Please model this.
Amino acid sequence: MAAALTVEQEQATKEFIEAVNKCRAGRRASPVSWSTAVKFLTARKFEVSRALALYEQHEATRRREGLATLHPTQEPLLSELRTGKFTVLPSRDGTGAAIAIFTAHLHLPQCTTHQTTLQGGYPAKLKKVLIVTAPLWFKAPFKILRLFVREKLRDRVFTVSIPQLTLHIPRDSLPQRLGGTLEIQHEAWLLHCLKSMTNRSGGELCEVTPRVGSPLSPTSKSPNHSPTNETTNNVVSSSNSTSPISEKHKIKNGSVTIGDIEITNGDCWLASDEAPSPVQPPSSASSGFSDDDSLHGDLGLQAVTMEQLVEAIHSRGRAGLVAEYAEIKQRPPDGSFNNAKLRQNQPKNRYTDVLCYDHSRVCLSQVDNDPSSDYINANFVDGYKQKNAFISTQGPLPKTCGDFWRMVWEQQTLVVVMTTRVIERGRTKCAQYWGPEPGDEVSAGGFTVTTLEVDTNPDYTISMLLLTNNKTEETREVCHMLYTAWPDYGVPQSARALLQFLSLVRQQQTKLLASRGDTWAGHPRGPPIVVHCSAGIGRTGTFCTLDICISRLEDTGTVDIRGTVEKIRAQRAYSIQMPDQYVFCHRALAEYALSRGMLEIHHLAMLPPTIEEDSD
Model:
């Protein structure tokens, strides 16, 4: 149902219609409808003067480009539509936005006039641009050109690889050629568009004239297809490696109509018989415009102040926290592990009982068209108000070191956090996938890892690494941060040391992100931080929980440890492996709050001895 307009919005709509229809009456044109007026006003926040200016610009563009009457069932527009260069998918992204795809290599300028292209697939006011698999010859001038465009536009442009598309769009919403699972039904979408427009009353902005019996006639039989009809954002992407263009733009307004698309001066709207649903923020994982859609950004019913948390711990004791953790652990997994269980992928899992979910797994680019080459035992995990802030993964095996560095490269990771030693209690917990001494070089897959410098401390070791892509000869600096004071199947002796380490991780992420300059256009907190221990669930989950809870505490003054752990476990199965790790999260947060003046010293005395012990 369309959202009801306020009294002020209704008045603005009346003013807009009166002004526009005066002009249209002079040209003996049909009056503008109420729904069309609302679309223009919605695009300009119901400011009548701005909406009128937008309408005038639209009219000028429509007359200049000859878009008064469209013939989608006749040439040349028929062929243009059927190329498939522009289509709208029957799926949504993570924010509920519709997805449109423009495939650049299907556009042949020598065979198509720009007027026909405008009629078939519209350029729109860009909310986001995804340039997929851009070649090297494009990247260099692109970086320079970014410096000369407005900051508002520059922050909306992304160059991504196919594996990185999952940072922006769920795999089940992407077509198969872009690493997803969706089957494109372009012809079905075209048929729906034609039916929609020929059955719609009111053609005050553009007339659509189908020809009965044509290939796209509304009388033709259409496959069962459920196209998009209302949205807030639109994605256009390309998988072409030579001339890729892909766009994500805000859908705001409409006027010139073809199929399900209406255009006015670059603002695009997926047509609907009703007004659009309220605008939802885009995914913070990739856009950087909003971070309110993170799974850890909601306040929830379990959120409490630190004083309330300490009082609850005091009343329930350690046994109460252990029982709470047992309730969480008893829940069955929230997803499937089909890819991890495939015969060809099983040797890539360090532990047979620690697998990665299908729905949140990190997909690598395929090598030599081998479908199994996209697998690595790793999952995206949301941070505080940040989608896919972390990649939780196992300690690399000797045979998966190349995959590990390929993941770091493709996800543009700046910081790798390691919370296990290579060998613990006489057992190998992780492969030595980097050189421990300055000047060391390690080759893995198509990458060379050179250790530039090493800073050793009692509780952690920080190494600056140079990661070289041997195929492209590109290089990037990556900070490797190894926390050495964390025992296997246990918790650190000092929460204070771990809290200091966590702060250093954020400092290194900020520092390296700043060095990237305009080459990073994603979330302000930067690319995913790779976190691993041995299995990638115990110490890794504890680290992520603390980072999320501390960020939330700083932002709102509240925490929700249980809710955070539950949501992390929904993305990386079995995260927080032991009850002591769950208890430690509470103790560490209390110490952090005390250090920040959010608690008094007497609050720590309220904690049971089994939680307070070793806190120094």
